[in-house]
Structures are given as structure tokens and as C-alpha cells.
Amino acid sequence: MAKKPSIPKGTRDFSPAEMVRRNYIFDTIKGVFCKYGYMPLETPAMENLDTLLGKYGDEGDKLLFKILNSGDYLKKADETLLANKDSNRLTGQISEKGLRYDLTVPFARFVVQHQGELTFPFKRYQIQPVWRADRPQKGRYREFFQCDVDVVGSNSLLNEVELIQIVDEVFRKLGIRVVIKLNNRKVLAGIAEIIGEATRLTDITVAIDKLEKIGLEKVNAELAQKGLSAEAIDKLQPILSLSGSNSQKLEQLKEILAGSETGQKGIDEISEVLDVLKELNLATDVELDLTLARGLNYYTGAIFEVKALDVEIGSITGGGRYDDLTGIFGLKDVSGVGISFGADRIYDVMNQLDLYPPEVTSATQLMFVNFGAVEARYCLRLAGELRQKGLRVEVFPDNAKLKKQMNYAHKKNIGFVALVGEEEMNKGIVTLKDMNSGEQRSVKPEEIAEIIR
RNA sequence: GUGAUUGUAGCUCAGCUGGUUAGAGCGCCAGAUUGUGGCUCUGGAGGUCGCCGGUUCGAAUCCGGUCUUUCACCCCA
């Protein structure tokens, strides 16, 4: 056998059967975005490297896929760097483009670049693949789809509320039971302040974000290892173990963070969002979770995450507010808030729970058997008429053995097969076979649509 | 980037401490059944055992490298 063709590590093909399911998810999500006034946006798969570099931290820079310059790209490279095999510094000379790492930074770039043409608040959604040179593992790929919805140019907390409504509606439509976890970076900053480690906010958030996964002991160990004082870790304990209803948690927090202005601001924001939500009768529970931190450093206010209740898979949607995302591209004071639906994980959840409505997976409704050139032309006309009535119809292209044609219909899960040979043509009828029951009968062409529907 | 793990027919996998011609199930093709799929039976095609090198009289089997799969860590969706 010849060498088997393959695809790069961490990438996937999507078969027709998978695509109809994925499209169902995307269409459902798009439909909801649309209802709230968000418009579609697409940006190029590749961006200039300087747009991408430095936006995701050192770790992120390493995970960027870089694109080699065209032509004789080594010609311009520095001899010394080449001789020393200094890949890091050489990269800048032989590559100036990279594949996008997420949709948020290209979006920020777009907003800055087109600020004159946009009307604010600007609401867009974007569903496109992104690439990361990570090592693939369970549920993690090198090419995967993000499904972002953001609004920039408005500080109102109503945007946070709206995004939560969208989450609620999307998952209700898809039939996935979820819980929305809510927190606020200002609260986390307040906590860091109160325990006397204001400058260690990132280390603290990264560590407590793991609480659910690795447990309190290990989180404390990690905090100690990062250099937090025992006293600070001690002060943190009651906060990590806060329990009760949202309002009970908020009450306790208010006391704990009494000394922190930022912290108070965060509490106010959370309270307001929860307050407005109360009147909206969401199907989904919104839970204040102080251990929700999310790694991304650019979040400054609300942060949220959505977890499936019936499947162990981690978060399937997440996001937050970022006050200065466009600042890195020179546009100050444009606040935004957005969330990203994890399409691949949602797909996994949908599959595991088998939540697709039956019409999603059905394709062709009726197939005409091909008995030869003359019969096929006759069938083509009938098929055309049925398609006009909105039926999904195909005519088998080859005059193959009937067994093969029937088998094709069977494998493709086609509901009905029409047999039209010389005899049927002369009589002006078709023999219609129901592939599920095996029954067949002679009917007039104009009756077909009625029977199949 | 670190540490493991996997690779044998289209697919899922057997193949012992190295020893003739590498097997099974499913799928595929053909026939039983010339205008009838699914079920059954019969027959057939299909593999330089991921790739490169080494050890050996002899390698799917042992060793090294490389790619790939899966998993954990880091980080993240």
C-alpha cells in the first residue's frame, strides 16, 4: 500500500455526518446572537506577527504558529544568528505572519483599525477556527473553533446581563443543562489587597482557579511555592471556603473586603448584575463563584464560565469584561465584554447526551432508481418537480444493479425509493417503496410529496 | 517545553521467551437472489507489520532515532 495520507497533529476532518451536527450547533448559536443585535465578523486566518506577539504572555508566544516568509526567506537572515542556530531571534527575520491564536485580539485590531467606520456600542459575533501549537490531549486540539460574541464601547452592566441571557437561551435551545458561574476581577483584586499581596494578583488567580480540580491543600501549596506569605494564605482561607446563597456570599464578602475600594466596586457590580437577572426569569442558575478566576490577564471586571451539569468536561463557555483591550493598539478607553462558546466541547456534550433533533441528521428523503438513460431523464423531471415542493430528492446517477442502488439508499438512510421503469412510465405512475417498513405501492407522481411529508 | 503511551488489512484488534506462507471480527467486492436494501449462506480481493537505521543465520517481535496516537504536567477552549 502507498503511504497513507494524513493530517497534521491535533487537526481533524469533519465528515458530512459530523458537519450537519456541527452546523446545527453553529446555526442555533448564530440565531440567538442575531436576535440580540450582534452582527457577523470574519478576520483573516493569518495576522501580522506583531499584532499577535506579546498579547498572550510568554507562554502564548510560544504557542503561536508562525508562517515562513515567501521566497528565499533565509537570504535576509542574519549570518550570525543562523550560525548560532538562534531560533528565537531568527524567527523575526524569516517570519512576519502568524496564524491567529484567538478571536479577541484580531477583533481588537479590527476595532482600532476601523474605529472611524464603526458605530458604538459595536456588537459582533465571530465563528472561526484558531490555532495553537500546543501539544494535543483530551478535548484540546491545535486547530479548533471559537465562537465569540462581544460588545465594545459600552461600560453598562446591561451588556453583562445580555450575555448571560444569550448563554441561557443558547443552551436552552440546544437542550444542555448548565450552570453559569460568575465572578469579578475587582473582587479578586480586592482580596489580594486585603491579604496584603496586591502585586501577586496573577499568581493568586491562577492558583485558586484550580481549586475545584486539585483541592484546597494543593492550592495552598502552590501559593506558598509562589512566594506568598503564610499569613496571606491564612487570610485567604475563609474566602475560599465561602458558602451559601449568592446574597449570603455577598454579605460576607462585603465585610471581608470593607477595606478595599476596588473590592467594593466589584461587589457592587456583581450585585447589580444579579439584581437585574432576578427579574428576567432565566432557566439557568447563575452562581457567584469566588474561585472562578480564568487565566486571561486582560479581564478587569466580570468574568463568567459555563459548566455542563450532565457531563464532566470542564467549562464549555467563558468570558469576561476587559477595560483596555484596544489600548495595546493605541485606542484608549474602549471597554468591552464578551464570551466565547467552546464549539468543540459543546459538540462533545451534544454527542454524549444525544441531543440532536431527528430532522438534523436526515438528509435525502427520496431517491429515484436509475433504470437507464430514458428512464433517468424522466425521473430527473419528476425529481425537479418534487424539489420545487421543497423535498430533498436525488436521482441515482448510474444505471447500476438495482441491488447496489437499493443498498446506497439504505446506507444513506434515505426514507423512500422510487422505482420508475418502462412499465411505470407507460402507466404514468411510480412504484414508491418505504425503506423503513419495506412496503411498496403504485402511486401517481403528484401524490408523492403528500405521502413522504 | 517536561514525563509517559500507542502504531499490524479500509476499521477494531490478536500475534507467547525472535523461527516456514502474519491471523480474526467488521466492512468491501462477487455469487446464491437477471426490477428490490436490511437477515442468512458461499467465495474473493486487500498487509514491504508507521518510517529510517542497528543487533542476529533469521526481526511484526530486541535496541536507537524519527514521525504519529493517547494521557498527565505547564498553560488553556
UniProtKB/TrEMBL annotation:
Transmembrane segments: none
Broad class of enzyme this protein falls into: ligase
One annotated Gene Ontology cellular component of this protein: cytoplasm
Gene3D superfamilies assigned to the protein according to its UniProt record, in alphabetical order: Anticodon-binding domain, Bira Bifunctional Protein, Domain 2
Entry GO MF terms: ATP binding; histidine-tRNA ligase activity
SUPFAM superfamilies: Class II aaRS ABD-related, Class II aaRS and biotin synthetases
Keyword Ligase: yes
Keywords: Aminoacyl-tRNA synthetase, ATP-binding, Cytoplasm, Ligase, Nucleotide-binding, Protein biosynthesis
Any one of the GO BP annotations: histidyl-tRNA aminoacylation
Catalytic reaction(s) noted: tRNA(His) + L-histidine + ATP = L-histidyl-tRNA(His) + AMP + diphosphate + H(+)
Domain of life: Bacteria
Ranges for domain Aminoacyl-transfer RNA synthetases class-II family profile: 1-358
EC identifiers of the protein: 6.1.1.21
Location of the protein in the cell: Cytoplasm
InterPro entries reported in the protein's UniProt record: aa-tRNA-synth_II (IPR006195), aa-tRNA-synth_II/BPL/LPL (IPR045864), Anticodon-bd (IPR004154), Anticodon-bd_dom_sf (IPR036621), His-tRNA-ligase (IPR015807), HisRS-like_core (IPR041715), HisRS/HisZ (IPR004516), HisRS_anticodon (IPR033656)
Positions of L-histidine binding: 102-104, 132, 146, 150, 294, 298-299
CDD domains: HisRS-like_core, HisRS_anticodon
Quaternary structure and interacting proteins, as annotated: Homodimer.
Family (UniProt): Belongs to the class-II aminoacyl-tRNA synthetase family.
PANTHER family cross-referenced by the UniProt entry: HISTIDINE--TRNA LIGASE, HISTIDYL-TRNA SYNTHETASE
Protein name listed in UniProt: Histidine--tRNA ligase
Organism: Thermophagus xiamenensis
Name of encoding gene: hisS
